[in-house]
Amino acid sequence: MEYDFTTLPPQDRYRLLTNFVGPRPIALVTTRSEGGHLNGAPMSFFNVFSQDPPIVILGIQTRADGTEKDTLRNIRRTGEFCVNMVDMELAEGMVLCGVNFAPDVDEPSFAGMDTAPCRQVDTRFIARTPCAMECRVERIIDFPRRAIVLGEVVDMTVRDDCLDAQGRYVDPSVYQPIARLHADNYIVADRQFELKKPDAATAWESGVAMPLKERAE
Which domains does the chain have, with CATH numbers? Predict the structure, then answer.
């Protein structure tokens, strides 16, 4: 099958892209409304793209009537947001936060999620999130029906039990994030495995070619 994306309707493009580009990590984004209420919204058009500077990206689509969603309006006004990563403990609450509530509804509270104040931005993070990344807007790229938000991470709070004894890497037996596949289908990272480069490839990268016999073996 071949699909010409220059003529394909947007919903068909969405279906194909989200079916094949996955699993996609979920950002449960918390912001502060104009009235001072906490807003929470899940987004699967999200990822980290750089460590220097530390940049995460959100893709936020407008509502069906073309109006901006509460999260984007809050981000434009405050220039701040917080990304909360989601595991199975927060999965049901994350889905509830995706309901199209009025702007003055505190979605995390409605979903039964405890929150705590962020340290460097004016919003709150989900207390039980494995990782909360406080962000300031670096730039926003606007398209007719979508905004791409680049946020610079200025602070990170990690749940203590998610890290190994040295505090350097996540403990895969504890941190098992969920991700979006397509439609209402999700996946949990509860089966992890290692894939390492063969010795020959490592040798080539260091500029030391291994003998043919050794490479063959």
Answer: 10-192 (2.30.110.10)
**In the Cβ-directed half-sphere of 125, how many Cα atoms lie within 13 Å?**
26
Per the structure block, which two tokens stand in for 8?
A: 């394909």
Is the separation of the CB atoms in 56 and 110 below 8 Å? no
Segments of the chain scoring below 50 in pLDDT: none
User: Structure pTM?
Assistant: 0.90
pLDDT at 49: 96
- Residue pLDDT, tens place only, 167-196: 899 999 999 999 999 889 999 988 888 888
